[in-house]
Specification:
duf1285 like fold; duf1285 protein fold; 2 domains; six-stranded mixed β-sheet; 3 helices
Length: 186
Amino acid sequence: MAEKEPNTLDGLARLASEQGGRGLPPVHLWHPEHCGDIDIVIQADGIWMHEGTPIGRPELTRLFSTVLRKDPDGYHLVTPVEKLKITVEDLPFRAIRLKAVEGHLVFETDQGDTVIAGPDHPLVVETDPETQEPAPRLHVRADLWARVSRSLFYELVERAEPVDGRLSVRSGEAVFALGPVGAGLE
């Protein structure tokens, strides 16, 4: 029988710290020699590809996501004895679900991470200089971020209120600006 998802902030915080109950390996402590590149691409749409073919097993991409690390020279899959560089077209994760729990914004990523937006996990909205489209992202862990899906961004805009001339959302005590009032977001 599946365990019921926690519906309190404490329960969700515990879940988030455990990253979906699966625990995360200490990749920040591993410093193997670089072994080369591997033909794995995380496409801008979040699909993981290997040698030009989608990786069809979600369990495998979830496993890979737990050993993913961003170093100054790019993204790598890291184990205690190997470090293989991969390609990430945009950001490695997608924020695909959102719910409000006790005044906090709780996101779920495409790889099963639970992230509570706040000071340690900011929500950042940049504007694409070419298209002027908002490009929202959410900090997941270390230097890994999730692109917030367009539908979730619209949900955030619906929750937003003007704060100092900017449409903003709250998650606990943290306030995150989505864009200027009157920029077509409302």
